[in-house]
Amino acid sequence: MSIAPLWRRLAAILYDTVLVFAIWMVVGFLVLRSFGVEQARNVEGNVVVLNPLYQYTTFAAMLASAFIFFGWFWTHSGQTLGMQAWKIRIQNTDGSVISWRQAALRYAVGPFALAPVALGYLWMLIDGEHRTWTDLVSNSVVVKISNFPGTP
Q1: Would you say 41 and 49 are in contact if contact means Cβ atoms under 8 Å apart?
Q2: CA–CA separation, 94 vs 25, rounded Å?
Q3: Where are the chain's structural domains?
Q4: Which H, E and C letters describe the chain, residue by residue?
Q5: Rounded mean pLDDT of the chain?
Q6: What is the reported pLDDT for 44?
């Protein structure tokens, strides 16, 4: 089992971020459509003021859709689309896919691991087993994989 290097993890995160933004555009459209444009905003003078219920609903839908995206991929194949592109996979130490509970823990800690200059990911450089904060909290590992035997 070869632990995935930091640069591959960060590249996969960047790739998946683009996909999540695309999902969020669709989610935002659907929430706006369900509220109706007139209920979602009010014009006060020259300022557009968003309805707080619309804002909270949109935020909750964005969080839920991102969790469903990551959770489904992590619990089914261990790889998001970005992870497939960079040939890495999340798994338990025995090679099995992670559970929804582990996915929820990774998802919850992920933003904190990235927030202060990716400190939670840089942590793998000093951890003896090269684990990030998300690996530690979910008791899982991110490994480098190869599609073809003998390729690096």
Answers
A1: yes
A2: 37
A3: 2-144
A4: CEECCHHHHHHHHHHHHHHHHHHHHHHHHHHHHHHCHHHHEEEECCEEEECHHHHHHHHHHHHHHHHHHHHHHHHHCCCCHHHHHCCEEEECCCCCCCCHHHHHHHHHHHHHHHCCCCHHHHHHHCCCCCCCHHHHHHCCEEEECCCCCCCC
A5: 89
A6: 65
Sole residue written with tokens 């969020």: 24
For residues 100 and 104, what is the distance between their CA atoms, to the nearest angstrom? 6
Tokens of 151: 């390729």
The answer on pLDDT for 45 being more than 70 is no
Q: Torsion over CA of 49, 52, 58 and 63, rounded to 10 degrees?
A: 130
| Segment 125-148 mean pLDDT | 91
pLDDT tens across 88-111, in order? 999 999 999 999 999 999 999 999
How would you label 44-55 residue by residue, b for 16+ Cβ within 10 Å and e otherwise?
A: eeeeeeeeeebe
> Closest by alpha carbon to 86, among 9, 2, 6?
9
